[in-house]
C-alpha cells in the first residue's frame, strides 16, 4: 500500500518534470567523453595534442598553448602583428581570451571565454580550411546574419539561367576509390545546390576549360594553404569566380560510410557539398546544423541543405522555380519538434527507470 502511494507520487513527479519546459542539459560531459574517445584514435591526426588544454582560462600558461594561438590566427580570430607578439607565447592572455570569446560566438557555442570541453572538442574537430571571420563584416550584421559571404559578396555572373561546368582533376586524385564512384559522389554534391538555385552544373569534357576545378592534394600544394595530413583541415575552396576546390588527399575519403570501417573516414559528398557552397560565394555559418558550418566530425554525413544555407545562396542567385522553401522550413520545424518530444520521452523513461530501481531496492530491503 505504502509502495503504491509512493509509486503514484513519483510517477506524478516524473511526468510533471518531463513536461515542464527545462533547458537542454549542459552537454559538457558528452564533449568530455568525446574528447577522450578522440584521443584514442590510432592515427596521429592534426590538433590531437590540444586535448591537454582542457579547462584552461585567462592567466594559465601551458606548453603548447602557442599552437592554439596559431590555430586562431589561421582561422581569423587572432591577428599576429609582429614576431615579438604575445601570439608567440604560451600564456593565456587577454588577447587569447578575446579570440576564444569571438570563436564561441561565431560558432554558436556557450560564450565562456574558457577552453571548456564543448569549445575544445569543436576546436579539435576536423574542419574546412577557409577562415571563419570576415573582418569587413559589421558588428550589427554579425548578430543578425547566420550565413555569411566573402568580402564584397562575389558571385558568378553570366546569362541566366547560369550554367557552370566542373571537372575532377585526372592527375590529382585518390587511388583507393573508383573514379566512377568519385564522379557520382561529386555529381550528387552539385545536385544538392542545383535543386535550390537556378544554376546548372555540367561536367566539362576538358579539365583545363572547366569553371570549377576539383582535385585531391597533399601537404603544400602551391596556393599558400597547405594541407595537414589525417583530419585537421579536410578541404578548402576559393571565392567566385576562382572555381578552385581542393580536398586533402591524406584523408580516408568515403563514398559510402556503410562500407568504410575506418574511424577517421570522412564523407566525400558532405565535404564536397560544403566546399561547393564556398565556390558559389557562401562563407561559414554559425548554425551548427547548416552545411556551411565549418566543422564535420569523422564518419558523419551532412549533405542536406538547411534553411540557413538555402536563404544564403538564394540571396546570391535567386530561387530555382521548382523549389519550395516552405517544405524545408516545415521539415526542419517538425524535426525540431520530434527531437523535443524524443527528449521528453527519454526523460520520462529515464526517470521511470530510476523509479523502478528504487522500488526494487525498497522491496529487497523490506
Ligand atoms: Zn568552409
Ligand atoms: Zn589548395
Describe this structure in words.
- The chain has a 6-stranded mixed beta sheet, with helices on one face. A two-stranded parallel sheet has the order 7-8.
- The chain has 366 residues and is an alpha/beta fold.
- The protein has helices spanning 2-19, 28-38, 65-74, 94-106, 117-124, 139-144, 179-194, 268-280, 307-317, 325-365; strands spanning 127-128, 162-168, 199-203, 212-217, 233-237, 244-248, 252-254, 265-267.
- It has 3 domains: 2-22 and 326-365; 39-124, Muramoyl-pentapeptide Carboxypeptidase, domain 1, CATH 1.10.101.10; 147-323, Collagenase (Catalytic Domain).
- Helix 1 (2-19) runs antiparallel to helix 10 (325-365).
- The chain contains 10 helices and 8 strands.
- Residues 5-25 and 135-144 have low confidence and may be disordered.
- The longest helix is centred in the last third of the chain and has 41 residues, at 325-365.
- The chain is globular, with a radius of gyration of 24 Å.
- The protein binds zinc ion (ZN) (2 copies).
- Residues 128, 130, 274, 278, 284, 294 line the site of one zinc ion (ZN).
- Pfam families: Peptidase_M10, PG_binding_1.
- Residues 152-319 form the Peptidase metallopeptidase domain.
- This is Peptidase metallopeptidase domain-containing protein.
Amino acid at each position: 500500500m505504502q509502495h503504491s502511494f509512493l509509486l503514484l507520487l513519483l510517477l506524478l513527479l516524473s511526468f510533471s518534470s518531463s513536461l515542464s519546459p527545462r533547458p537542454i542539459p549542459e552537454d559538457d560531459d558528452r564533449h568530455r567523453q568525446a574528447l577522450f574517445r578522440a584521443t584514442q584514435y590510432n592515427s596521429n591526426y592534426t590538433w590531437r595534442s590540444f586535448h591537454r588544454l582542457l579547462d584552461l582560462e585567462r592567466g594559465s600558461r601551458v606548453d603548447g598553448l602557442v599552437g592554439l594561438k596559431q590555430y586562431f590566427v589561421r582561422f581569423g580570430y587572432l591577428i599576429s602583428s609582429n614576431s615579438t607578439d604575445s601570439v608567440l607565447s604560451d600564456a593565456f592572455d587577454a588577447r587569447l581570451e578575446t579570440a576564444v570569446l569571438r570563436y564561441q560566438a561565431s560558432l554558436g557555442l556557450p560564450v565562456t571565454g574558457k577552453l571548456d570541453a564543448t569549445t575544445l572538442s569543436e576546436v579539435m574537430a576536423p574542419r574546412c580550411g577557409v577562415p571563419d571571420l570576415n573582418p569587413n563584416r559589421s558588428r550589427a550584421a554579425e548578430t543578425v546574419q547566420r550565413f555569411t559571404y566573402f568580402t564584397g559578396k562575389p558571385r558568378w555572373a553570366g546569362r541566366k539561367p547560369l550554367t557552370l561546368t566542373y571537372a575532377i582533376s585526372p592527375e590529382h586524385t585518390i587511388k583507393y576509390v573508383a573514379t566512377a564512384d568519385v564522379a557520382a559522389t561529386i555529381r550528387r554534391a552539385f545536385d544538392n545546390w542545383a535543386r535550390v538555385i537556378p544554376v546548372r552544373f555540367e561536367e566539362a569534357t576538358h579539365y583545363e576549360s572547366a569553371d570549377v576545378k576539383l582535385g585531391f592534394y597533399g601537404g603544400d600544394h602551391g596556393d599558400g594553404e597547405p594541407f595537414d595530413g589525417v583530419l585537421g583541415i579536410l578541404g578548402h575552396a576559393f571565392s567566385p569566380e576562382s572555381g578552385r576546390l581542393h580536398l586533402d588527399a591524406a584523408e580516408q575519403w568515403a563514398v559510402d560510410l556503410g562500407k568504410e570501417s575506418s574511424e577517421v573516414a570522412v564523407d566525400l559528398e558532405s565535404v564536397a557539398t560544403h566546399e561547393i557552397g564556398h565556390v558559389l560565394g557562401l562563407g561559414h555559418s554559425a548554425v551548427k546544423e547548416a552545411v556551411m558550418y565549418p566543422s564535420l566530425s569523422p564518419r558523419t554525413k551532412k549533405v542536406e541543405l538547411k534553411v540557413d544555407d538555402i536563404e544564403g545562396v538564394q540571396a546570391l542567385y535567386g530561387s530555382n522555380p521548382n523549389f519550395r522553401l516552405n517544405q524545408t522550413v516545415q521539415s526542419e520545424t517538425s524535426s525540431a519538434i520530434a527531437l523535443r518530444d524524443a527528449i521528453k520521452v527519454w526523460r520520462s523513461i529515464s526517470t521511470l527507470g530510476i523509479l523502478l530501481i528504487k522500488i526494487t531496492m525498497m522491496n529487497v530491503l523490506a
